[in-house]
Design a protein that fits this description.
By secondary structure, the chain is an alpha/beta fold. It has 14 helices and 7 strands. The protein has a 7-stranded mixed sheet with strand order 3-2-1-4-5-7-6, with helices on both faces.
Length: 316
């Protein structure tokens, strides 16, 4: 396989918009909690000779490529193999003090999505893996399909994929499993979903897209750790430090929006409760009243940015 060029393989999403809220040109310490191929980190480090970056990613292949890309910055770039949920530990291990800014891009990297063997995309026939960290001791997608009961599977597909045909898809998956022919590859799953889901000419996405998204989220526990990550990040930031998060689907964006609101002091209690019990304390100022979306120029240059949304807050 030819060597991958990290700079050509990945276009960082909402890059200019991220730099506007983070303001790395003033220098300081930044944590790129989802380093990927290093596009955002490279831009931060290029913004000022006084800027430093701690990069975190759970994908070793991406880390190796990012490390080569950022090697020209020397000790200003520090790289750690970990999940972003471990941000407190990584910040402590780095011994660089509290950061001026933290960025998290929650999308699947081009390296992962374009891989012919990782199972993230049904563009290639590959084993259903979908683990961001292939060395992690956790179920891959095929194992999840082989062990989860029908109701739980339907709930996963509905909750994380917002797929209305979730029960039918789950039933068909279980029927194949019980017939002694469990689903093991991307093409097998995509074909089953395509036959199970009613589509029309107006549909712009492949019918299996939502199911693949749901399984990826479930395998990696992506939503389970997001709210705590936001709280940990705000605690780590210096006063006036900025947290910027890029999401790619409504479930992530809703968690980010609601967590930012809670940390901004907005009560999350049901309206009929006479006294606040959610413990909302104003710790941040929300910088993005509405999410920042890609420009028309970026959409033309990088169609994968179409569902990206950026939200940011500043620590008080």
């Amino acid at each position: 396989m030819p060597e991958i060029d990290a700079e050509k393989a990945h276009l960082p999403v909402l890059l200019d918009e991220s730099l506007i809220v983070l303001q790395p040109q003033r220098g300081g310490l930044f944590i790129d909690a989802t380093l990927g191929l290093g596009g955002h980190s490279e831009a931060i480090l290029n913004s000022s000779p006084e800027a430093r970056v701690i990069g975190i990613d759970q994908d070793k292949e991406a880390l190796n490529l990012a490390e080569k890309r950022l090697s020209k910055f020397g000790k200003r770039a520090m790289i750690f193999h970990a999940n972003f949920s471990e941000i407190r530990k990584i910040a402590s291990d780095a011994k660089e003090g509290n950061p001026d800014g933290i960025l998290a891009d929650l999308g699947v990297s081009s390296l992962q999505f374009d891989s012919e063997k990782r199972g993230f995309s049904f563009r290639f026939d590959a084993p259903l893996d979908m683990r961001m960290d292939v060395d992690a001791e956790k179920q891959n997608a095929a194992e999840l399909l082989a062990t989860t009961n029908q109701d739980e599977l339907a709930n996963i597909i509905y909750k994380y994929g917002e797929e209305r045909a979730s029960r039918k898809i789950a039933r068909w998956i279980i029927e194949k499993r019980e017939s002694g022919n469990p689903i093991k590859t991307t093409f097998e799953l995509a074909d089953l979903v395509k036959r199970a889901v009613r589509t029309s000419k107006k549909d712009k996405i492949h019918p299996a897209t939502r199911t693949f998204q749901a399984l990826r989220i479930a395998v990696n526990g992506e939503l389970d750790i997001l709210e705590q990550f936001i709280s940990d990040s705000v605690d780590l930031l210096k006063t006036n430090g900025v947290l910027a998060i890029i999401t790619f689907h409504s479930l992530e964006d809703r968690i980010v929006k609601q967590t930012f609101q809670r940390l901004a002091g907005k009560c999350q209690c049901p309206p009929r409760i006479p006294q606040c019990v959610c413990g909302a304390i104003k710790k941040v100022e929300v910088l993005t009243r509405k999410p920042v979306l890609p420009s028309e120029k970026e959409l033309k240059e990088n169609p994968r940015s179409r569902s990206a949304k950026l939200r940011a807050c500043r620590k008080l």
